[in-house]
Amino acid sequence: MRKLTYFVAGTIDGFIAGPDGDYDFFSPYLTEDYLPHLTVDFPETLPTPARAALGVADAPNTHFDTVVMGRGTYEPGLAAGLTSPYAHLRQIVVSRSLGVSPDASVEVTTEDPVALVRRLKQEEGLGVWLCGGGDLAGQLLPEIDELIVKQYPVVAGSGIPLFRAEFSPRAFKLTGSRVFDNGTIALTYTKASA
């Protein structure tokens, strides 16, 4: 069975973007000591144009072959004319308002996200990457098997939280950590056994 991994960048205080969805304040942390972690260990999490620019366009997918994201995560690329941000993956956008997909390689669905992920987990292949955002992550919290947080050394104060959900504590176990010279910490958690 495939697993769902929420692989996401965040601040010390738990925000994945600013109040208006801005995430440019994370850019200073994509430094020479940290970027190889992404290009070598998680090349499939880089947008297709970034893979080409960083010389890893042909790198094999190592963890994921499917990406699931909400409309708010998909729209910044769309606004810049990037209709297929992860062309090297199966792309699914969960949205009740987006309507018809602007790109044949991007599936837009109004399907219940939990039912969607449960169906995807039954398929053969690599893992499923939950790209964002906070609302979708909150809905999918019961289905998240692994959480990889790239915690950047910055406090936002407010914004879009890692999870937007009702109070319902879920236990995870820290299974890996890596500290980078720029202060970024990559934290890996797996769902704790019930």
From TrEMBL:
Coiled coil: none annotated. Residues 2-185 form the Bacterial bifunctional deaminase-reductase C-terminal domain. One of its GO terms (biological process) is riboflavin biosynthetic process. Pfam families: RibD_C. GO terms for molecular function: 5-amino-6-(5-phosphoribosylamino)uracil reductase activity. SUPFAM superfamilies: Dihydrofolate reductase-like. InterPro entries: DHFR-like_dom_sf (IPR024072), RibDG_C (IPR002734), Riboflavin_Biosynth_HTPR (IPR050765). This is Deaminase.
